[in-house]
Amino acid sequence: EAFPGPKATYSITTFSEINSEWISETIDAQPGINGNEALHTAVVYTNNYVGDIVVQATLENQITGTTTWADISTITLDGTEIQPTPFNFNGVYSFLRFKTTASPANTITKVLVRN
């Protein structure tokens, strides 16, 4: 146990349509352990998805219907990706979620996130 093991990976597989946008479930961004410049790593598994995937974050302590979300990072996919698409972003946040510009049904298999 001299070396730390890998951090837990969150798997996001559920998106809900809200006002013509598809929003993922929220995950804890673990602000207490991430210090001042937290690095977050995500990878998107897709199958011919065409559109944007937007990472959104909040600093609020709990999620309610009036939670304010800010766009943190955007990746654009053209449907030709044959391998999972990785990306990184920095920041200390309370919660994270993902928003898509096109329906993710049958085109986004999952999003894996490590904080």
Can you give keywords for this protein?
10 strands, 115 residues, mainly beta
Task: Walk me through this protein's architecture.
Strands 2, 3, 4, 6, 7 and 9 form a 6-stranded antiparallel β-sheet that branches. Strands 1-10-5-8 form a 4-stranded antiparallel β-sheet, with no helix packed on it. Helix content is 0%, strand content 50%. It is globular, with a radius of gyration of 14 Å. A hairpin with a 2-residue loop joins strand 2 and strand 3. With 115 residues, it is an all-beta fold. The mean pLDDT is 89.
Count of alpha/pi helices? 0
Radius of gyration: 14 Å
Unreliably modeled segments:
none
Main pleated sheet: 6 strands, antiparallel
Give the overall average pLDDT: 89
H and E string: EEEEEEEEEE
Structural class: mainly beta
Report the principal-axis shape. globular
Counting DSSP E segments of at least 2 residues, the number of strands comes to 10
The percent range for helix content is under 10%
Q: Give the N-terminus to C-terminus distance in angstroms.
A: 21 Å
Residue share in β-strands: over 45%
Layout of SSEs?
Blueprint: E1 10-12, E2 15-18, E3 21-24, E4 27-28, E5 39-46, E6 50-58, E7 70-78, E8 85-90, E9 95-100, E10 108-114
Antiparallel strand pairs: 1-10, 2-3, 3-9, 4-9, 5-8, 5-10, 6-7, 6-9
Summarize the entry for a quick read.
By secondary structure, the chain is an all-beta fold. It contains no helices and 10 strands. 0% of the residues lie in helices and 50% in strands.
